Every structure is written in C-alpha cells, then in structure tokens.
Amino acid sequence: MDARRELEILVDQIRHHERAYRAAKPEITDGAFDEMFDRYVALADELGVPESERIDRAPGADHTDGFVQVEHRVPMLSLEKLTPNRRDSKGASMPLGEQLSQWWERRREDLELSASTALPVYIEPKIDGISVSLLYERGSLVRAVTRGDGKRGDDITKQVERARAVPARLGTTGNFEVRGELYWPRAAFEAWNETLRAHGEEEIANPRNGTAGMMKRKDPEGLESVGITSFLYQVPWHEGVSLPRRQSEILRWLSEQGASVYVEQTTVAESAEAALAFCEGFGSKRGTLPYEIDGMVLKIDELKHYEKLGGTGHHPHWGIAYKFPPERKTTRVVSIEVSVGKSGKLTPVANLEPVQLAGTTVVRASLHNFVELERKDVRIGDRVEVEKAGDIIPQVIQSISHEEGSVGFARPTHCPACQTPVVAEEIFVYCPNPACLAQRRERLIHFASRRAMEIDGMGESLVSQVVDKLGVESPHQIFELTSERLAGLERMGKKSADNVVKALGAAKSRGLARVLYSLAIRHVGETMSEDLASYFGTGEKLLAFAERYVAGDEATIAVVAPESGSGAIEGLARKTADSIFGELASPAVRRVLEGLAGAGVSLEAKTAARVEVAGVAGKSFVLTGTLPTLKRDAAGDMIKAAGGKVSGSVSKKTDYVVAGEEAGSKLEKANELGVPVIDEAALLAMLGRS
Ligand code: IVH
Q1: Residue 330, SS3 per DSSP
Q2: Which one of 194, 345, 560, 658 is at 20 to 30 Å from 71 when CA atoms are compared?
Q3: 131 lines ligand 1 (CB under 6 A)
Q4: What architecture does CATH give domain 437-507?
Q5: Mutate to test the pocket of ligand 1, among 123, 127, 323 (most ligand atoms within 8 A of CB)
Q6: 684 lines ligand 1 (CB under 6 A)
C-alpha cells in the first residue's frame, strides 16, 4: 500500500480508537494501540510530515544551541500514568480505580506496611507548562535549568530572572534546589496573542509552547512584561535547611517562603475512590481555572518513604499522574478555506467562531482532506464539535446540525494560491505547480526547520517575512541574507539578526541527507534521505543518476529493480523511484541544488558520524516502550550512527527488539517470531557505550 494512504488510514484509525477509548468503549488493547501509534510515527518520519500536521508532537524542553548545559544533581524524571483503557493480562479492561488501588497496594508492599496502615496520598494539579530546576544559595536564586533530557538541561537563569517567573529570594537561608513548573496563565497568554493578532503576526499555539519559546529566547529583554509565572512543588536537595516531612507541608512551606503554590487546590486522600473523585471533580472545573492543567499528580505524602520506594530510570515510585480526557467543545463553522502544503497538498481548514479549548482560543481546525470532509458532511454554518488531538492540533470531530439550506464545500478545481488546475492522487488533491507561492513558503518553513537544515531562529514568522518583504523564493536565497537586511524586519534586533546569520553558517555543513530531506520531495523522508545520501555520496552523483534514470538507462533501473532479490537502495520500490528521481531530475530541483552548492552548502554525505560498530552495523532494530534513560529518537540515532537500521515494525527480518517499560504488542510479536529482545543496557553494551 502507498505510504501516504497508509498514513491517512492510520490517522483515521488512531482517532477512532482514541474516541472509543474516551467513551470508555475501547475496541483494542493498549498494546495494539501503541503499535498503531508507533507505526504512525515511523511513517510520518519517513514521509516528512510537517510538525504542524503531526498528531504525535508534544513540545519538549530539549537542548537549544547557544544555551549552556547543566547537569542535574538529581535526575529530572517523568511520572507513571494511569491509563483509562488499560487491560489486564486476560484482556479484561481495568478501570482507573482498580489501577490506582493496585498501584497503592504495591507501594504498601514495597514499604512492608500492613493493609490496615494508612498511606495517605497528596493530590496536586498537574500544571501544563515546562519543568524547571531552581538552585537557591543562601536563599537567593542562582540558577534555573530546564529539564532537558532529564540528566542535563539548559541554563535559563537570565530568562527566568528577567521574566520574574520565580522568587529571586525565598524567605529562608540555606542552600537548596526547588523544582516546579513554569507556565503562562491564561489571561496573560491570551493578552499576548491578542497583541500578536493586532500586529498581524502569527499567534502562539498554546501556553506551554509559548512558555518554552519565551524561556528559550536568547535575549531576555522584554520578558518581564510577558507574565510567565511558576508553580513550585518539590525540594529534591537541600543543606542547612530543615524541611517539613510531608509533601502537603512542603507546599505550605514553599508558600510561606514566598513561592507561588496552590495549596488551596490540593487535598490528601486515603482511598482510591476518594482520590479519583477529587481528580474527576477537578477536571470538571478545569476550564474555570486561571491556568492550564492537563491532569493531577498523586504523591505519597510521607517524604521519608521516597528513598525506599525508589523507581525506574523513567519514573519514581512515589507518584503517579492522572490525565484528563481531552476537552471537546461545540462551535460554528464560519467558512471553509483550502490551505496549500509544502508538497502542494490541498487541505480543507474550517474557520470557526472563536471557542476556548484546552487553554487557547481556537479559530481554525483541520478537516484533514476532502474525502473526510465529504464523509463528515461538514458545511459552512454548521454547529460542529471540535477537539484537540494530543491537546495540540484542533480538529473538527463531527457536524451536529446543518443550517437550513446549507450546502457542502466543493472540492477545489484550482489551487487557491496560484490558480493552477489541481491534480488528484488517491484521496488527496494537489497543486502541481512547484513555483506556487503558498507552496514555496511552506517548503521554506520546512527547509529551515529543526529536523531539516536546522536554521536556529528561522521559524515560521521569520520565513514569512523573508518571503514577503525580502523577496526570498528559493532555499539558496536564504543563505544570501545579510544581517543588515534581516535587522530591518519586525521583532528582529541587530543581535537576533546576527544570530540568524551565524545559524545560516552552521546550517551549511549539515550534509547531503539533511539537504535532501529539507527539499520536501514527495517520498523523501528522513530515512530515505539517509539511504540516498549514503548510497550516492554526493549531490552530483545523485543528480547524474536521476537524469540517467528518467532517460530510461537500463543500468540505473536495474539498481532499483534488479532481476532478482531486492534493490540496492533499501526500501526503494520502482514506483517510488520513478517519482523521486523524476523530481530530482526536474529543472526546478536541479536549480535549487545548484543554488545551494553555489551558496556554500555542502552536498556531501556525512560519513564521519557513522562509525560502524560490529554487531550493530547491518542489523535491523525495532525500539518499543519507554526506555529508562534514552528517548527512542536518540537511541535510534545511536543505532544508525553505528551502521544499524531502525524500523517501525517487527518482522522476521528484525534482528533485535529493544524493549522498555510498557512495551506493547511489538514485544509480543518479537516473542512470537523468536526475535531476540534486549533492554537499553544491552543495547548500550552492544554500542560499546556502557
Ligand atoms: S512531580 C518525577 N508535580 O509533570 C517527576 N510534576 O509528567 C515528578 N508537573 O516533569 C514531578 N505539575 O513537569 C509534579 N504538581 C506537579 C506537577 C508536575 C506538573 C509536570 C512536571 C513533570 C511532568 C511529569
């Protein structure tokens, strides 16, 4: 099946199962759902689905170039979650109450407490912001660090201080570390977006992304007027301070020292029923709070138990998170418009009457594609239900009522941006004109993005400005931008402009694979880019091959579709090759590549980073579940750097499955097929990194 079609079906299935799960009528097991989701992630990577369209993207507090990295004294871990559709080993569904009781029982056993001994749990709101670690020396703030990868984070002291997001002094002397969440209260966030709107600038998607973005501003100037603040909840390390003995008292203590905490929003519970009732009750008033919360955190109240309870490399055993189901609201469709993607894909988008949803005012929502739009029969004027997938991208779930006399939205026959007649490919509709202005803008946004050329500081709004105001049309022209020209743009000081120019310099040496991925050629996702780069070595050889291929040269076709066995370029089927080499040989792509080479961008494959490790090189790995210390992406990059392959699904060809916590059906499949299953430690040992 065509990868795009598969992706489309996966998105539909994922949404369907998410709905079923929220309606407490799950049709599949957690494991099967995870597998579906993992397959989506692998395919979306492969196809280079833009960040804004992905359903799996949650902003992380990853390392940003230019920030000093600081090691955490105590690792910043995650939390285990109560999962609404969990099933037990016999396939029976496990209600949340039962899961929580089990968790609680387990803690009692770990602590060797009798069933009749009380083990109170403290419940706090789970604020939706970015976590921060604060070091206070003799009562004064000396450092603020993001979570980063849990072991090392970025130093954001300047930003936090300037934003006045946490107290500069706490009312106690002594040295200690405090952790908490930096967040943007709804009102201040809305006011900020209102100003952006008034200036015709792009709004910030949600308060959490906004907080992360603000705290990663290299120049902290002006942050004091943004309104970001904090909720502090933990003291993981201290000397010369006498701390209370319970979490409930820690919050009160922090509050007495001058930190902002929401003691009044918390409770102590002694049973699973009481705890869940409190969480659910909180959920129903979620929308009325002045800040965003995405769930509740349940913590064993007695701090003396924490050491004995321990944890995994991923989460401590003293706490567990309760997540709220996504919010859903009804509103009205004001109009439907068609947006043009980077590869020319036309997507229907609904403009809505503004509605508050999970912390932001939603005014637009995706309708995915025209087949889906027709199936849902969403019409202009309809009342519709909207929801945020993964609490990020709003989408129209269904139409509740049609307006009298309303008519459906017809598929476009011409591109709304350049008026070129559209072409249909399977369920999608495309604008086939590569010079289309809307496509160009989207392509440039993709070109500069993190997984592509990673041009730091060149986000969507700067790209729009260089397109509209500086006449940039093609990627190579980005490299001709000077600090003087950039400094004339909105929200661009001299210093930021210099930084962008510096970032452009750094982007020139990303290598052929990243360049290929950044061109947004259909079927050329990250993996395909890497395969092409490592097979051809240079842009020149790749282009020469593409020309011979489209001219029908038999030798080149044999590389893709040999008489026997599989092709020399892994994963490249004949039909895909026709499309890829067809585009590569087109004058438009050739011009771009020549322009880039002329601007000093390297079109050489990076081989230095790939140091083959015996035992890993040439082997195929599948990663599943949560690994104790590494993110799956990072583990995958390490395997690839050692010459191994990473695939999204388990088959007989898989050499190893690397399984972490909560590994689902991939693990079952591996066991079924007799594929060796290893853990992170074994993988690190194979890579020679343990
Ligand atoms: S306790 C081991 N308490 O949720 C981590 N976390 O999913 C213990 N969060 O990384 C964290 N509100 O960024 C804790 N009241 C709260 C929280 C909270 C928000 C965030 C925090 C953490 C993430 C875990």
Answers
A1: strand
A2: 658
A3: yes
A4: Orthogonal Bundle (1.10)
A5: 127
A6: no
Q: Is the CB of 206 within 6 Å of ligand 1?
A: no
pLDDT computed for residue 461 by the predictor: 84
**404 burial type by CB count under 10 A (0-12 exposed, 13-18 middle, 19+ buried):** exposed
Structural domain spans, the chain: 1-57, 121-323, 328-401, 437-507, 512-598, 620-686
Residue 47 vs residue 675, higher pLDDT: 675
Query: Which residue among 122, 181, 293 has the greatest number of ligand 1 atoms within 8 angstroms of its CB, and so is best to mutate?
Result: 181
C-alpha closest to that of 358 among 209, 202, 192: 209
Choose among 515, 461, 372: nearest CA to 48. 515
Catalytic site includes residue 126: yes
- Could you please report the per-residue DSSP string of 626-640? B-SSS-HHHHHHHHH
Query: Which CATH code for domain 620-686?
Result: 3.40.50.10190
Exposed/middle/buried for residue 373 (C-beta within 10 Å: 0-12, 13-18, 19+): buried
Residue 505 in tokens: 């310099």
| Cβ–Cβ under 8 Å, residues 687 and 638 | yes
The answer to whether 231 and 224 are in contact (CB under 8 A) is no
Which atom of ligand 1 lies closest to the CA of 128?
A: 19
- Ligand 1 contact via 474 beta carbon (within 6 Å): no
Give the pLDDT confidence score for residue 609 in this predicted structure. 58
Kindly state if the Cβ of 148 falls inside 6 Å of ligand 1: no
State the distance from the centre of ligand 1 to the C-alpha of 142, rounded, in angstroms: 22
Q: What is the pLDDT of residue 93?
A: 72
Closest Cα to atom 18, ligand 1: which residue?
Answer: 126
**Pair 606, 508: CB distance under 8 Å:** no
Q: What is the pLDDT of residues 372-386, one digit of tens each?
A: 888 889 999 999 999
In this prediction, what percent of the chain has a pLDDT beyond 90?
Answer: 49
User: Quick one: tokens of 415?
Assistant: 């591109």
Cβ within 8 Å of residue 563, ≥6 positions away: none
Q: How many CB atoms lie within 10 A of CB 140?
A: 13
**CA distance readout (Å), 137 to 141, 145, 177, 667:** 6, 15, 9, 47
Q: By alpha-carbon position, which residue is closest to atom 17 of ligand 1?
A: 126
d(CA 496, CA 507): 16
Structure-block tokens of residue 388 = 């945020």
Of 25, 81, 90, 126, which one is the catalytic site residue? 126
Ramachandran area for residue 390 (φ above 0: left; ψ -120 to 50: alpha; else beta): left
Mutate to test the pocket of ligand 1, among 122, 124, 126 (most ligand atoms within 8 A of CB): 126
Token pair in block for residue 136: 């206070």
Among all chains, which residue has been given the structure tokens 């509709």? 429
What are the pLDDT digits (tens) for 638-686? 898 888 888 877 888 899 999 988 777 788 888 888 899 999 999 999 9
**pTM (2 decimals)?**
0.54
Which pair of tokens denotes residue 55?
């359903």
Chain segment 317-369, per-residue pLDDT in tens: 999 999 887 778 899 999 999 999 888 899 999 999 999 886 678 899 988 88
- Ligand 1 atom closest to Cα of residue 130: 13
From the candidate CATH numbers 3.40.50.460, 3.40.190.10, 3.30.470.30, 3.40.50.2300, the one assigned to the domain spanning 121-323: 3.30.470.30
